[in-house]
Write a structure and sequence with these properties.
The complex is a heterodimer. Chain A has helices at residues 13-22, 27-50, 58-61, 90-96, 105-112, 114-135, and strands at 4-6, 70-72, 75-80. By secondary structure, chain A is mainly alpha-helical. Helices cover 23% and strands 44% of the residues of chain B. In chain B, strands 1, 2, 3, 4, 5 and 6 form a six-stranded mixed β-sheet that branches. Classes of the chains: A mainly alpha, B alpha+beta. Chain A binds chain B through residues 1, 92-93, 96-103, 105, 108-109, 112-114, and chain B through 17, 19-24, 26, 28, 32, 34, 36, 38-39, 41, 56, 58, 60, 62, 92-97, 103, 105, 107.
Chain lengths: 138, 113
């Protein structure tokens, strides 16, 4: 299983993007800002939940801190969470549990929970709103 | 809601267990499902009441047959979809306590009005 990747996702994203483009905004730059801010919101929460599983520190050390967005055509993506190839494999045990071990719900929620999804949506929407206002001279 | 999920999975004639519920000494069945309820969220608010609930589950399939891990989970996904569950994607690998077994899981939602 690969690392998780952040994407842009909120209701009306297309409308926001079209409006910003019409106003002459730099969509790519705004999208990158959204992804980086979203990651900066999630990553400290992961460190916080990992403090309960601090045996060697290797799993926590595998948390991806890179904020360089990878672009493939018009799709920008940013890895978030644990790097499985660099010591993060135990995170799979914690995140999903095993038949003998209950999952760490707090860790799962820090990436996949409905609360974090709403927070990330709000962050991304606010960035688009701010940029539209800025382009409008607000 | 859990009853419905369990009933559908039991239709495959393999044991269905709560994730994390096997004891240390309990032997893994050759093939089995596990599930876990991540959350249940209220939606569709009007008149100060919630008019629908969204249940959020993990469904996992473990087996000592690596091929079955893929094929059986896919069959389960199809059956769950037929029964009204919302599933996106083809699943992901999940960890097994036993080197003899592999596992795959999928994220499953159900909206109850």
């Amino acid at each position: 299983m690969g690392r998780n990747r952040l994407g842009l996702s909120f209701e009306g994203l297309d409308l926001y993007a079209r409006r910003l483009e019409k106003l002459g905004g730099d969509i790519k730059n705004v999208a990158e800002k959204c992804l980086v801010k979203s990651k900066e919101h999630i990553t400290p929460k992961l460190h916080q939940v990992m403090s309960r599983h601090h045996l060697t520190g290797a799993t926590e050390a595998s948390i991806d801190e890179n904020t360089s967005v990878e672009w493939s055509g018009t799709q920008g993506k940013l890895p978030v969470g644990f790097n499985l190839g660099s010591g993060g494999l135990p995170s799979v045990f914690l995140m999903y549990g095993t038949p003998r071990m209950k999952k760490d719900q707090a860790m799962y929620n820090a990436i996949y929970g409905s609360g974090i999804k709403k927070e990330v949506t709000q962050i991304q929407q606010e960035i688009f709103n701010d940029e539209i206002l800025k382009q409008m001279g607000g | 809601m859990e009853d419905k999920l369990i009933e559908i999975l039991q239709g495959f004639a393999y044991p269905v267990k709560l994730q994390g519920s096997l004891s240390e000494n309990e032997k893994y069945p050759d093939h089995f499902f596990t599930f876990w309820n991540n959350n249940s969220m209220s939606e569709g608010f009007y008149d100060n009441k919630d008019h629908s609930l969204v249940y959020d589950y993990d469904v996992n399939f473990y087996s000592n047959d690596p091929e079955l891990v893929y094929t059986k989970l896919r069959e389960a996904i199809e059956e769950l979809k037929k029964q009204g569950f919302i599933i996106s994607g083809d699943g992901y690998s999940v960890a097994s306590d036993e080197p003899t077994h592999d596992g795959r899981g999928v994220h499953v939602l159900y909206r109850k009005n």
